[in-house]
Amino acid sequence: MVALDRPTLRLNPNQGRRLRAGTPWVYSNEIAMQPEYRQFPPGGLVAIEGDDGTRFGTFMFNPHSLIAARRLDRDPAAMIDADWLRGRLREAIALRERVCDTPFHRLVHAEGDRLPGLIVDRYDDVAVVQANSAGMDLLTPLLVEAITALLPLRAVVARNDSPARRQEGLAENVALLVGEDARAEVTEGGVRFPIDPLGGQKTGWFFDQRPNRDRVAALAHGARVLDVFSHVGAFGLRCASSGAREVTLIDSSAPALAQAEAAATSNGLAGRMQIRRGDAFDTLAALTGERFDLVICDPPAFAPSRKDADAGLRAYGRMARLAAPLVAPGGFLFVASCSHHAPLEAWSAQIAQGLHRARREGRIVFTGGAGPDHPVHPHLPETAYLKAQLIQLL
Amino acid sequence: MVALDRPTLRLNPNQGRRLRAGTPWVYSNEIAMQPEYRQFPPGGLVAIEGDDGTRFGTFMFNPHSLIAARRLDRDPAAMIDADWLRGRLREAIALRERVCDTPFHRLVHAEGDRLPGLIVDRYDDVAVVQANSAGMDLLTPLLVEAITALLPLRAVVARNDSPARRQEGLAENVALLVGEDARAEVTEGGVRFPIDPLGGQKTGWFFDQRPNRDRVAALAHGARVLDVFSHVGAFGLRCASSGAREVTLIDSSAPALAQAEAAATSNGLAGRMQIRRGDAFDTLAALTGERFDLVICDPPAFAPSRKDADAGLRAYGRMARLAAPLVAPGGFLFVASCSHHAPLEAWSAQIAQGLHRARREGRIVFTGGAGPDHPVHPHLPETAYLKAQLIQLL
Questions:
Q1: Is the CB of A378 less than 8 angstroms away from the CB of B114?
Q2: How far is residue B201 from each of residues B105, B230, B255, measured CA to CA in Å?
Q3: Contact at 8 Å (CB) between B212 and B336?
Q4: Of B363, B367, B375, the CB nearest to A363
């Protein structure tokens, strides 16, 4: 990829305000789109300049995407090769060495690590790569070269089946890129959990909630715990491992609960864990009269897209209204949202309303998001999708 | 205080939407103000009902305050006595027993602990009380009775000299209420710091930043650290204690720096700490060319009131622009705001803009606020005044 071959796209007149302010994205309507641009290979490298000639750097360009260009480098002539990727990866690794205490974490968090659309999760010596932009799809071979040069990896997997990929017009692609066996195990707070990155389901251990699991597990000793929308039971397993008296997991997915059950057994926690399959809302309603010291509600995204935003927000309120009565006085409710279209203020107002409708008073002990292995680009605060609150009910 | 003697105030027609939704405050324009209400003693107890007869509970009423009534209890006939206060305090203590690992913390956080306007900080066996509402001023003797019955306190101090008090029309009042000597010592992360709650200055150890100090100190080993707006040097002392190579404190207050210097000496950290008096903005500008591994900017409120909001927000941006060039590549910038009138989104946009103007890229590793000993009422999210970001610069 020689910089001299790189086409230069121009912005429309008076566009580029966000770029000038520091945002690394260009929307398609900001570009003075020429017919030939439409023929550019999705994800190819371009330089972008303003109609006044200001040069904004090197971008990956996808003519079929709403976010048409994503900045890789402020230098319009930057060579984007394995060396360049090694530099970015070194920075990503260096951050995790400072803020993570185990080799189980998100190693690359897309724009937060100046690698637009690229996600890499690390399970010690196994890396799982998601390329959510056409450009990162093209760069994957170079990335594999760079990452295996920097870390002692036994296996690298491409796990390209996210909704974000479909929005970019990219095909699904799940493959073992390096190594012979990608199966791995997460160790977190005393719990061991098997990971199969090539399995039929996506990896069930979400690193973004790691600090929140620490926070919740610290309250679990001796507690009766309800983990609704438990998925594979990460919160519940951590609570049981931290000395919870009794943990009930509820989820609608039989395969997720089967993984939870296997992990409960292999961690010697099965005696204190109950696993119930069912619709979370129905089960919350059916549990009326029960009291738990700790109730965890970490649902799938209720507002994954803009059109779902209102209904999704209301669903969080309904969840809080149904969960609050199950919390013993002095107990804790943990709620989270991974919806991109549920801004913190509106979301927490819904949670507050849910508590009020349940006629419960409470106090927010913690509000926050993902851990430090999920860094956020300063000009893209909206990409910090995870919100969480820990609320003590009175 | 007999509930039967309690006057009942009515809301204006169609008012009470926020009360009905769960907010514990009533603004003066919401109340159907009768001439005699103006004569009520500030802080006296009232019941409040809607024009439809809905009863909202027991409130403290101050006819001279914009927030005219603050809810104490949902029961309109609740007896507000030492027993009642003991109940609320028990809840406050129980929370801290769950989430704090030392007896140095905020013990009562006003509405977050359902004690409107009341702040109590605990320095082991010394409690420092601030009554920021007329009602809590009246209740202070009962409060002292209740708190000394629950905790083994050697001294209780009233430290009533906050701006919030002036807004309520209350006089300043700093007094030793219980005991003979209120001097105490905070121990935090290996640092010991003397506290004199009756001293000329306010207590310089702010508990709200405790978890942020933990976070920053964890990055300090071997680092060259700059602590701007250092006040008594809490961040810098923690960094030095955590193995920083060199810590520079900058503040404009000679008395604050004198306390910092004494603490550096008594903690055996003076050899690695430099203390410089000066205007923070000027000093940041004058340090051009220097590089630090960690720069901390925890200024006093730039936007304490609504009229300062715009200028205050811009000051945070200027601060970030001046601080960013001093951070070594791969180093960290910690910024905070204790302004009530700097909402997170607008504030973090200013920080991002400051970095961009300094031509530095970065990634936000942490966004958050005060620790769990500063609980927030679910319907008063705006009272969570403290915002903080930890940003790695590249």
A1: no
A2: 19, 15, 8
A3: yes
A4: B375
Among chain B, residues having any CB pair with chain A shorter than 8 Å are 21-22, 74, 91, 94-95, 98-99, 112-114, 219, 330, 344-345, 348-349, 351-353, 355-356, 361-369, 372, 375-379, 381, 384, 390-392, 394
Q: What is the pTM of this model?
A: 0.95
| Nearest residue on chain A to B343, alpha-carbon basis | A345
Query: What is the number of H-type helices and E-type strands within chain B?
Result: 10, 19
Contacts of A77 (CB under 8 A, 6+ apart): A3, A6, A47, A58
Rounded to the nearest angstrom, the minimum Cα separation between A353 and chain B is 7
Q: Which of A3-12, A127-136, B237-246 has the lowest mean pLDDT?
A: A3-12
A352/B94 Cβ within 8 A: no
* B363 contacts A112? CB cut-off 8 A: yes
The residue-averaged pLDDT of B69-90 equals 96
Give me the active site residues of B, please.
Answer: 338
A338 is catalytic: yes
Joined together, the tokens standing for residue A325 give 């009565």
Are B257 and B275 contacting, i.e. CB atoms less than 8 angstroms apart?
A: yes
Distance from C-alpha of B326 to C-alpha of B228, rounded to nearest angstrom: 11
Task: State the DSSP H helix or E strand holding residue A27, giving kind and residue range, or none if neither.
Answer: strand A25-27
How many CB atoms sit inside 10 A of residue B352's CB?
24
Q: What is the crossing angle of helices A210-217 and A234-241, to 10°?
A: 40
Summarize pLDDT for B324-375 with one digit per residue, the tens.
Answer: 999 999 999 999 999 988 899 999 999 999 999 999 999 999 999 999 999 9
Q: Which residue has the tokens 């966000």?
A: A18
DSSP 3-state helix, strand, coil percentages of chain B (rounded to 5)? 35, 30, 35
d(CA A321, CA A114): 40
